[in-house]
Amino acid sequence: MTFPVLTVLGLLRLVVALVLAVTPLGEKAAKALGLAGSLLTLVLGAVVVIATATGDVLAEKVAWIRPIGAWWALGPTDGLSATMVALTVILTPIVLGAAWLEGDRIGGVAEGAEPVQRWSAKAFFALVLTVEGLALIAFLATDVFLFFLAFEAILIPMYFLIGGFGGAKRRR
User: Fold this and answer.
1) pTM
2) Which of 49, 50, 95, 122, CA to CA, is 20 to 30 A from 86?
3) Is 114 exposed, middle or buried (0-12, 13-18, 19+ CB in 10 A)?
4) What whole-number distance in Å separates Cα of residue 171 and Cα of residue 155?
């Protein structure tokens, strides 16, 4: 059995997000861990994209829920999914780096907006990493049930990202 690089690519972000969510890290340590996790995923994503471009077939298929015929099946089957993986792993470190530079303004109140509860940057980093991990699984899924679960699961952290860090009219 070969190294499951696609599974690690998808689940690494979710593990880092979970660590950020449950450990009592300070804001700076949480930001550093989140950015380090995103950069590590960037490296793994580059490996996957290069392997796909050179014609290597990276595919994983393990029986997951046998009674309904669901498989944990991942694989960049075409250039479109490899492109989406590349865009995701490149964009997330940029977003997290920009959020780090914003500092105290993350979750702050926009000018002229009503004051709302300020969420922490730690929560922001954990939610962004969760969205990225689920997006990578959705982009790599070759089983429709796995794709459906990952795609729908993205809505949960997106709800909290928009509700906690969205613009002045996010409540609508």
Assistant:
1) 0.83
2) 122
3) exposed
4) 16
